[in-house]
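Sample intake sheet
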Amino acid sequence: MSGAVVEGIDHSKVASWFSVHVPSSTPPFEFELIAGGHSNLTYKVVDQVGKAFVLRRPPLGHVLATAHDMAREHRIITAVGTTDVPVPPTLGVCEDLEINGAPFYVMEYVAGAVLHSDIEAELVDLPDRMRLSRQVAEVLAELHSVEPDNIGLGDLAKREDYLGRQLRRWSRQWEQSKTRELSTMEYVQGLLERKKPPQVGSTIVHGDYRLGNMLTDSSEILAVLDWELCTLGDPLADVGYLLNNWVDPDEVPAGSSAPTLAGGFASRDDLLMWYQNASGRDVSGIAYYRAFSYWRLAAIVEGVLNRYLNGAMGDQDDVDTNVFKEQVEMLAATALEVVES
């Protein structure tokens, strides 16, 4: 398999870069696209002695400006790696487009389970599900306790008016990537702008914090993944997003399957209590942030749909794009229901 063609990887040039910049690696290398990524492409790299690494690069083809910034994502993970928040150790970043046609970065491979859905979550022992639930809340509170200046991320983004900035950003994203007209999106945007609460603080915001973006081992979070949406701003945005993905077994998920459908995980109220106790923040206005997160996710998923339709996500012909279209419409409708409740 060594030398096999893998879309998105210039095998010989990337292998040469590894040999120079990742001294712990031993050529030759095998590259494999890790399934499940809907945004940046993630590859497993295995060297001659069986040691594994992870390589991340942008999607193939055209992407929106400022999106999929590999150097920025590498910088964030490297900085967060100096705190008590678990992330994969970074090993290097390449911004030379001559190497692979796009920037990429490399991390150590962390062996763990990603709970993409209830199928994977069913394999977690019942007592461990509750312990893992609590750790999810407390690791998020730990991230939000980090002063960005102390780890070199104070200039990552503006700190003030987080919600206003996000509303402007994702409305632009929607306009640039929408594949059809959907009036609910514009209507919800107007409601969110009118009901916007004062910002409760300025912290590192992960932007996509959920079980499906973590490597776990029983009741332990081994690494928090997918930092491409990370910014500085209102920490309750992360909490609202987490709750939206924390689906009770008797609920229909607003989108794709949710790992907590397996049952045995903490309730949303438990998560909020643990987060509030660990962070000291008032979470009584969390409904707004949940509505905002549904609306924002609708814009994100529409971008994914757009990239699939334009062939920018690599060779994944078995993907049913109607699933993404229906998910966007359900997310927008749920955002409307929550913001008006």
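Comment: The domain at 11-108 is CATH 3.30.200.20 (Phosphorylase Kinase; domain 1). Residues 286-309 form the longest helix (24 residues).
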